[in-house]
Amino acid sequence: MKNLTAVDKKQEVTRDRFLGGKIEVLQPSRHGHRSGLDAILLAATLPHDCQGNAADLGSGSGAAGLAAIALRPQLNVLLVENNPMMAELAYQTSNLARNSALSSRVEVLEADVTLTGANRQNAGLAGGSFEFVIMNPPYLDTSSNRASNDLVKAEAHMMGFGGLDAWMRTATCILKPGGMLAMIYRSQSIGQIIAATQGRFGNLQFMPIHPKSDQPAKLLLLRAIKGSRAPISFVPPIIVHNADDSFTARAAAILSGDELLF
Question: Which CATH number fits domain 4-255: 1.25.40.10, 3.20.20.10, 3.90.180.10, 3.40.50.150?
């Protein structure tokens, strides 16, 4: 990995604290994807007592993955990121002093989530290696959306070749039988989500995320079990903001790491 000083000179970086200061994450200040509420909601989706190995696919600089293990002392995480700059920030984030208690449980892999077969295996994503996979895949379709001029941000937000199915294929491959997938995605793409899980996952649990109580859900959280035949269900939603734009009590508790979603 490069020296962080070199990254700093090329790219302005901020140090952002999450979970009420429990973790600190290095993020690009202007160019590239910045994690926020989505990452913490995703981290809060896994069971409170989960243990073993998790993969954070498309991890960015590692906010969701680090938050997941900060809340669960018996969980390890592999941060999988394709962009070299973001992978470097993930590596440097895992070694920050504030994250020192977690560093032994974090690994960073620079790899393309959409690789298949031997190429995926050779890149370091071996089949049946993880009990959990979390992911926040790119949500914009290049056929109907204009990519950002910020190439790093465009890479994080624009779904590439293979679409969501390619991400689901990798998640299925690297999970152990009965392993859990947790994902956050656009609510308008629920049809794509269900289609991509067919024959791979069951016991799909959807949790709508409403910006306010009187606004439609723009995002969905999903939990699914590899190989399960249990039916789809919807659990009660989470409301993020009150009418005055402050966080609801539940959202505030999630963001501080005092509560989980399931």
Answer: 3.40.50.150
